[in-house]
Design a protein that fits this description.
Helices cover 34% and strands 19% of the residues. It is of the alpha/beta class.
Length: 347
């Protein structure tokens, strides 16, 4: 799976939370300019325990709690960045990031351009997103499409622990602001029935061997999870595992691509795959209208029109506010993906 800067030392099995914690720990140990801030990230270690133990190890001046003010958290991070620090703020749930939009869009994203390169905004905003924990409308949204629209921001979404650590370290070291979305549905590895659901057939991929030392996975480089010849499937986050499971169940000779980074997008890998297969399907959890799948569909149409044998299919969440009572029906799953495979293969 490695395609970035390799690590020395051994590996151990980690879930995504452990890999994220390890990434921050390794990065902080290498660079004293890195600081972590957010609601409950210090003594408590974060609501999902992603920052557990870091305050004890690095002190309260480098890992500290903030008031419940997302605008304030990002505003402080922007100020820190202009003075040479590398802040890693946590927004406790992506649903609560909207009060910080002005700081992200008007300040962080524009700082390097507005100052002619005199100042940078090396900020990595970590935030869990998506459903799967029965969090309701205010703890389950997938707003990645909003941020991919903002020039100057990078948007990263890992699908497994190995990538989560490597991508996060790369994001922290990047000189531009990065929104790092963490799919909380696969935070803790295989489901064990805690959420009153059976073990998912793809959940075994939610744990993997992760190097304990430093390594990076480059931003802007997709991963071909599975090679195939009949249809290209583009996915990210949790949907990579769902799509992989359905591909195995249906027997479709699909090429599955984990985008990993939405901005910058690895358009070369996408185009090469679609030109090979002649068909394309996009899968994401966010709503269909103005979701990132629309951008992907347009790009595939622009670059691969003469190679396409069928219209691009999108399998997404519903165009409704997040339906708490129908959470598992809302997610793209085996039934809807299988139907989409039939449509794209029949044309």
């Amino acid at each position: 799976m490695s395609d970035g800067t390799a690590a020395a030392g051994g590996t151990r099995t980690m879930n995504m939370i452990q890999a994220i914690n390890s990434a921050i720990d390794v990065a902080m140990g290498r660079d004293g300019a890195i600081v972590v801030l957010g609601e409950d990230v210090g003594y408590f270690g974060g609501v999902f325990k992603a920052t557990e133990g870091l305050q004890k190890k690095y002190g309260k001046t480098r890992v500290f709690d903030t008031p419940i003010s997302e605008c304030g958290i990002i505003g402080v991070a922007v100020g820190m960045a202009t003075y040479g620090l590398r802040p890693v703020p946590e927004i406790q749930f992506a649903d609560y990031i909207y009060p910080a939009l002005d700081q992200l869009v008007s300040e962080a994203a524009r700082l390097r351009y507005r100052s002619g390169g005199e100042f940078n905004a090396p900020i990595t905003v970590r935030t869990p997103f998506g459903g799967g924990i029965f969090g309701g409308q205010t703890h389950s949204q997938s707003p990645e499409g909003i941020f991919t629209h903002v020039a100057g921001l990078k948007t990263v979404i890992p699908s497994n622990p190995y990538d989560a650590k490597g991508l996060l370290i790369a994001a922290i070291e990047d000189n531009d602001p990065v929104i790092f979305f963490e799919p909380k549905r696969i935070y803790n590895g295989p489901f064990d029935g805690h959420y009153d659901r059976p073990v998912q057939p793809w959940s075994r991929f939610a744990e993997s061997a992760v190097p304990e030392d430093y390594y990076t996975v480059p931003l802007g480089k997709a991963r071909v999870v599975r090679e195939g010849n009949d249809v290209t499937v583009l996915a990210y986050g949790t949907m990579v595992h769902v799509a992989h499971s359905v591909i195995q169940e249906t027997g479709v000779d699909a090429e599955l691509i984990d985008l990993r980074t939405l901005v910058p997008l690895d358009i070369e890998t996408v185009v090469a795959s679609v030109r090979k297969t002649g068909r394309c399907m996009v899968v994401h959890e966010a709503t269909k209208t103005s979701g990132f799948g629309a951008e992907l569909s347009a790009l595939v149409q622009e670059h691969c029109f003469h190679w396409l044998e069928a219209p691009v299919q999108r399998v997404t969440g519903w165009d409704t506010p997040y339906p708490h009572s129908f959470e598992w029906a809302y997610f793209p799953g085996p039934v809807r993906l299988t139907e989409a495979f039939k449509r794209v293969m029949q044309d």
